Amino acid sequence: DDLECVHPPTQAHKASSSPLIIYLQNFITPQERAHLKQVSEPSFRRSVVAGHDGAQRSDIRTSQSTDVSRDAVVRCIEQRALRFQGFDTREEQLEPLQLVKYGPGEHYDFHTDWLDPQYSTSFNGGNRMTSFFVYVYVSNDTTGGGTNFPLVVPPRDERWCGLLECDDAYANGLTFRPVEGNAIFWENLTPAGLGDPRTEHAGLPVTTGVKIGMNIWTRQVPVSDEVRRQDMPLDF
Ligand SMILES: O=C(O)CCC(=O)C(=O)O
Ligand SMILES: [Fe+2]
């Protein structure tokens, strides 16, 4: 646990102004990726989504997920995610980092990361202000598995190709390709603090290969200790 926290030289590219979406190249290092993959491997369980009877399995989200414990590597990534958001965001606003794993045919249908008011009480830390989705592992044979924002107009410059799906029909919106080590950051809420419907997105089906991603969600206010300890209802 005496790891020195060294942040990689991340390059940031704005992909959309409204909603704000920023693409981050080289957000996590190869060592961090290998570590996350190794520690999470035994604990993946079928993913759940928020439902009336609490967190439940659903055809909407067929991946496997797990929280990761806050070891030195994870704390270093947390500090990076906080620092990127400026100096006003507090560590207590972070949900436990969540890894998600998709095999062939697995996907996460269109959804928003912001939650219904019933799940975003101040007890729960309010709503999810921002999201990072980090590509932790993408096997060499991976096809599919992009992250699609159907309501966002894609940027046009050719230098995006490779990072984005440039051959896609314009009407399909913005699709990021899964590129290991890179991340997407976006703001989920409008300036008034309401869920922004334009942030709707999906984890497209992985056709071949395996993709492991990581969610870093920041709440509007500190998450109460009770909720942090119960680990619920944060696991969706
Ligand atoms: O798998 C993806 O590309 C996106 C996953 C996602 O949106 C989520 O887990 O909330
Ligand atoms: Fe999401």
Automatic annotation (TrEMBL):
Q: Which GO terms describe its cellular component?
A: endoplasmic reticulum
Name its co-factor(s): L-ascorbate
Q: For the Fe2OG dioxygenase domain, which residue ranges apply?
A: 93-220
Identify the SMART domains for this entry: P4Hc
- Pfam families reported for this sequence: 2OG-FeII_Oxy_3
Q: What Gene3D superfamilies is this protein classified in? A: q2cbj1_9rhob like domain
GO molecular function per UniProt: iron ion binding; L-ascorbic acid binding; procollagen-proline 4-dioxygenase activity
This protein's UniProt keywords: Dioxygenase, Iron, Metal-binding, Oxidoreductase, Signal
The record, for PANTHER family, names: PROLYL 4-HYDROXYLASE ALPHA SUBUNIT, TRANSMEMBRANE PROLYL 4-HYDROXYLASE
Question: What protein name is recorded for this chain?
Answer: 2OG-Fe(II) oxygenase superfamily protein
